[in-house]
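dumping this here so i dont lose it
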């Protein structure tokens, strides 16, 4: 078994650190506040939240995890959201009855699947979903919760709420949850700039709706120890300097660190070759090669100016609107850079942390260095 795991929610032994962040999440939510979690893509938001959920459930909270990504319509939202809520109630039949009682515009039907387990499906009483039904479904957690049975609702990929007729739905959501006494909400998502706008823009419904929390990449020392320990678990020695080199090659992003480490492990375990910098670079290159068709297409799609900007960002992402940056990379006006950058951010290619812009996929960055 590969001692590294990427692309899914990770738990121990593939998960490390984040104790402080986890505590903060637990304290904020159990203290009766809502929270929004910010971090660039693939920094480990969802895994961290699952860890916090485990702890919150131990404390007696009922935690409902809901992912907005697969939602494509109001109907699909109602169906999936009610399923997520109902599945966390102890008595299934009672919960389905409560659903029918609290949400008038739908009629839930209890059916038994092939394994004999109860499931439910929903029929919509009217053809069109009206505000009232939507409002009732949003109030469902509050109606099922009580002071002695508090709920935490985790809304992942929350920016996708925009798909559901944008700001109207957003306003309704906010207006409902602000009255919830026994439910607290945790919002997160992988499109940071959209989420950021939702919670930090005065004109938006969720402005000031939650405490803000930013998570960084994993701390260096702990990451080095993790890499060394995981390699050691299958008898492979990884020197500290090499662990550091690996972290750098993976852009210091948790997902890419585990991806590259998995590739290196695979290589080393099947050969007599010792791991060294060359081998780590070779593995990084292999990852780029495997994705090169996609990267070519992605790069090709960008405008000439955006390509120029990407090449500049490979070298530096600091002070990119300054005249010295403009001069160094032969860009034109800051306004042109701003526009090109907005497109790259919108596409999820570039992200920003603490005033610094960076290419979110370190292997795409590598592709630009070697092939573009
Ligand atoms: N605490 C951690 N310890 C070790 N590896 C981690 C940790 N958190 C995340 N990872 C690595 O990063 C990968 C992505 O984690 P996760 O899906 O939780 O991130 P995310 O921020 O929710 O990503 P996305 O932006 O795509 O939604 C994991 O599969 C794992 O390889
Ligand atoms: Mg996630």
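and the seq i came up w/
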């Amino acid at each position: 078994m590969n001692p590294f795991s990427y692309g899914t929610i990770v738990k121990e032994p593939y998960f490390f650190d984040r104790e402080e962040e986890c505590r903060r999440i637990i304290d904020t939510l159990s203290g009766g506040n809502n929270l929004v979690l910010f971090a660039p893509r693939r920094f480990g938001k969802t895994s961290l939240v699952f860890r916090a959920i485990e702890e919150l459930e131990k404390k007696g909270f009922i935690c409902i995890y809901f992912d907005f990504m697969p939602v494509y319509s109001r109907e699909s939202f109602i169906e999936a959201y009610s399923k997520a809520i109902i599945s966390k109630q102890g008595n299934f039949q009672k919960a389905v009855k409560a659903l029918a009682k609290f949400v008038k515009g739908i009629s839930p039907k209890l059916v038994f699947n092939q394994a004999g387990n109860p499931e439910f499906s929903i029929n919509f009483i009217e053809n069109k979903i009206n505000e009232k039904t939507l409002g009732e479904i949003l109030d469902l957690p509050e109606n099922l919760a009580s002071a002695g049975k508090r709920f935490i609702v985790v809304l992942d990929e929350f920016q996708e709420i925009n798909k559901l007729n944008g700001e109207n739905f957003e306003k309704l959501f906010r207006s409902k949850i602000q009255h919830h006494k026994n439910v607290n909400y945790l919002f997160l998502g992988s499109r940071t700039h959209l989420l950021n706008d939702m919670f930090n823009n005065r004109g938006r419904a969720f402005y000031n709706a939650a405490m803000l929390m930013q998570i960084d990449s994993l701390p260096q020392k702990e990451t080095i120890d993790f890499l060394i320990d995981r390699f050691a678990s299958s008898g492979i020695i990884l020197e500290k300097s090499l662990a550091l080199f690996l972290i750098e090659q993976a852009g210091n992003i948790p997902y890419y660190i585990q991806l590259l480490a998995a590739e290196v492990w695979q290589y080393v375990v099947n050969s007599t070759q010792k791991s060294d910098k060359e081998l780590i670079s070779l593995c990084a290159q292999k990852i780029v090669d495997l994705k090169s068709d996609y990267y070519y297409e992605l790069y090709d799609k960008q405008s000439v100016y955006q390509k120029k900007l990407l090449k500049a960002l490979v070298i530096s992402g600091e002070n990119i609107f300054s005249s010295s940056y403009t001069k160094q990379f032969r860009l034109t006006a800051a306004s042109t850079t701003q526009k090109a950058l907005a497109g790259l951010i919108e596409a999820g290619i570039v992200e920003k942390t603490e005033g610094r812009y960076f290419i979110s996929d370190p292997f795409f960055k590598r592709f630009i260095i070697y092939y573009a």
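The first strand starts at residue 35 and ends at 38.
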